[in-house]
């Protein structure tokens, strides 16, 4: 039985960080239970609220956010949190050396149809000059993804699975629901470099820029076309589910910019979607880019900033980037 804490200690992960990860997992265990019981306990459906990004909040978005926020801020390991469902950062009163940014429930549109959802988290260090207790500001969260000390997601599917990196590769842990512990089930995840599988919401095709139009058109031409092979397509409408499949068997996932809305061209959020997924994918040997730049090198400019995302199997992402650089 490879339990989480001893495995992380073996990897040399510091004790406070292990305790913080365990706190996130305690909240996720609760979320997993509530997602599974949602239909029975009447928490399916939307609220009357919108978050700062103009999205209608589901009851489970709010519940998951509250669970994570309360447990993290009371843990003593987290100075402040940022969340998709919080307009501004929230600072705790119990000290700690870490900042956590999270998407409490990813794939919200899947909630009401009993399909995949997940929680995504990114752990950053408190900047040196704030370790003395000087109040944390939004600026302190605006660190490039390269600064993440750990990142991961918990996927609520037929099994509840954690994908975790602390910068030494990616491991999967599965929640053993009989004992309530996360047990290591796969280690050193490696994304195959080549693939015949792609994930994009093709209903938006008319909104993509020319390089993405060309890249997907050539894929769809299959064996007879310039790519010389037939591809398969998947779209889970939950980034956690799509990235999990890519970690398991390779593929390319992209959510490109939409040219029809210059005010809001991108969908995925940098701090709590693109960066943590970027760290996981890179740690598993894949590539992650905006089309112009490695996502992990971006200097964030605002808390809920959105970016274009291309990630997955190294060779396929490179081919996609070639279309952008022609
Ligand atoms: O509506 P679409 O285009 O299918 O978008 C799906 C994408 O939106 C997201 O659901 C956004 O996440 P939230 O549910 O946390 O807002 C991603 O997980 C997913 O990749
Ligand atoms: Mg999300
Ligand atoms: Mg969400």
UniProtKB/TrEMBL annotation:
Span of the signal peptide: none
Binding site for Mg(2+) 2: 103, 106, 273
GO cellular component: cytosol
Pathway: Carbohydrate biosynthesis
GO MF annotation: an example: fructose 1,6-bisphosphate 1-phosphatase activity
Quaternary context: Homotetramer.
Protein family: Belongs to the FBPase class 1 family.
Alphabetized Pfam families for the sequence: FBPase, FBPase_C
InterPro entries noted in UniProt: FBPase_C_dom, FBPase_class-1, FBPase_N, FBPtase
Primary subcellular site in the record, as a coarse category: cytoplasm
Domain (Fructose-1-6-bisphosphatase class 1 C-terminal) ranges: 191-324
Keyword Magnesium attributed: yes
Recorded catalytic activity of this chain's protein: beta-D-fructose 1,6-bisphosphate + H2O = beta-D-fructose 6-phosphate + phosphate
Note on how the cofactor is bound: Binds 2 magnesium ions per subunit.
Name of this protein: Fructose-1,6-bisphosphatase class 1
